[in-house]
Amino acid sequence: MELSTKQRLQIYVPLVDFIADVLGKNTEVVLHDATDLDHSIIAIRNNYISNREVGGPATNLVLKMVKENKTAERDYIANYKGINKFNKNLRSSSLFIRDDEQKIIGVLCVNTDDTMINNLHNIINELHSIHDQPSDDNEFERPIESLSISIEEMALNEIQEITKLRNIKIDQLKQSDKLEIIETLYLKGIFLLKGAVVEAAKALKISEASVYRYVQKIKRKEDELISKK
Description:
By secondary structure, the protein is of the alpha+beta class. It folds into two domains: 5-145, Beta-Lactamase (2-Layer Sandwich), CATH 3.30.450.40; 150-228. The protein has helices at 5-10, 13-23, 60-68, 115-128, 151-166, 175-187, 196-204, 208-228, and strands at residues 27-33, 41-45, 76-83, 89-98, 104-112, 144-146. β3 (76-83) and β4 form a beta hairpin. α5 (151-166) crosses α7 and α6 crosses α8 (208-228). The protein is globular, with a radius of gyration of 19 Å. The chain starts with a helix and ends with a helix. Mean pLDDT is 85; it is low at 134-140.
């Protein structure tokens, strides 16, 4: 009998406890259901690191990977930068769980707080005047994952990141700027979350109907481009 998505993901739940027990209390381990992005967290250990709970939404990285399905040729991404809600940097890795058609159905994430190790490393470097040599660039771009605990927080974080890059405050955005931000949020997969339209409208101070109309316009444009390929 063929297993359902839920049954397949349940197989990975014991791994959450196993990895957490092996790596210790400084490592958070999370299992995401990529078919239910609004409530994707189905198992989590050492959640004090990100303050997230079972039933929490997917991260920006999970959304992006599900939308683009870029990882079909890869099983995992290791040792990229994660940021928790307390603005602390983490060392993160993600294992992609796919179905028979190579569609991502789940993600197993490991987020390690290396603060103590890094502090010790810095002390040793000072004592011995050791300077790390730059490592070779990885052939894949390393992402940055924001471990948000709510859809509202995720949408606001993404908008603030965009406005920070533009060196402009949200209150100073023109209508054209807001439309470009909506397009960027769409391309990042933020609108795969059911409550994202509401939160984006609230943060950008425009109507939900305006956000929805523009999202549909972008989607139609994207579908047209895909159909021409």
